[in-house]
Design goal:
InterPro entries: Homeodomain-like_sf, HTH-like, HTH_AraC, HTH_AraC-typ_CS, RmlC-like_jellyroll, Tscrpt_reg_AraC-type_HTH. Keywords: DNA-binding, Transcription, Transcription regulation. This is AraC family transcriptional regulator. The chain is 52% helix and 23% strand. The chain is an alpha+beta fold. The chain has a 5-stranded antiparallel sheet with strand order 1-8-3-6-9, covered by helices on one side.
């Protein structure tokens, strides 16, 4: 489990300076407003609103404000077991990035800070869970960045194609013909980015639409199965239960009490 040494939010004016110092534990900083500069192992790193900076233990750092700024920060250390959970902890390398869902990330950092300052029950467990989620978000965004924008666009285009044609019979070869990539390449890339195979994603889309139809329209399950692209009602029942964990009948019974 991570050892959390401190967690805080600070507002600092343009006079803020920090002399060169050794980073004794891992440091994670999130800038929510303003601008400043860090130097880490003689590398100049400009920071502004929305930037995240990770500095591993042992790094030599200093800093200076360019204007008023606000930052969230947490200082922590990780054991060998923790380092195996996420590549960023294993690599121990300084990096700067912008998180995709910055509003949610700020919310989680704020909650981490709150729990740390309140020192309430289950402090270690709660802080560990929040920090692990935050680091997982960072690692996920870094993984996506490494995939490259072209690959991400390809997956996004395939998702849009599936949404548009979900009522039709879609096979992996159809997605291959649409994208100009081999079925195996599409399947592997799609799984890497989304966690689903293209067909699993198709089923998830269809069942999500089917559930909305059950809640808002007075039509039969057979009609819903046909309108969401399933070849027959029995197949619809099997996929519905696989995706949701319960049958369409159970879902409708829950709806109407």
């Amino acid at each position: 489990m991570f050892n959390l040494h401190s967690c805080y939010v600070k507002e600092l004016d343009s006079s803020w300076r920090m002399d060169r110092t050794i980073t004794t534990n891992d440091l994670l900083i999130f800038i929510t407003s303003g601008k400043l500069i860090y130097w880490v192992d003689n590398e100049k790193i400009p920071l502004q609103q929305g930037d995240i900076l990770y500095i591993p233990e042992g790094s030599l750092r200093s800093g200076a404000a360019l204007e008023y700024h606000q930052r969230y920060a947490t200082v922590f250390s990780s054991t060998g077991a923790d380092q195996g959970l996420l590549p960023i902890l294993d690599k121990k390398k300084t990096f700067k990035m912008k998180i995709q869902n910055s509003a949610y990330f700020k919310l989680r950092f704020s909650q981490l800070t709150h729990h740390w300052q309140m020192k309430g029950p289950y402090l270690d467990t709660t802080c560990y869970a929040i920090l692990l989620e935050m680091l997982s978000m960072i690692n996920s965004d870094l993984d996506h960045r490494e995939l490259g924008t072209r690959k991400l666009k390809l997956v996004t285009d395939i998702q849009a194609y599936i949404l548009k044609h979900h009522q039709e019979s879609i096979k992996l070869q159809d997605l291959s013909d649409y994208s100009g990539k081999t079925p195996n390449y599409i399947s592997c890339l799609f799984k890497q980015v989304t966690g689903f195979t293209p067909i699993e994603y198709l089923h998830d889309v269809r069942i999500s639409i089917a559930k909305d139809m059950m809640l808002s329209k007075s039509i039969t399950v057979r009609e819903i199965a046909e309108q969401t692209g399933f070849c027959d009602q029995a197949y619809f029942h099997r996929v519905f239960k696989k995706v949701t964990g319960y049958s369409p009948t159970d879902f409708l019974n829950e709806k109407y009490g």
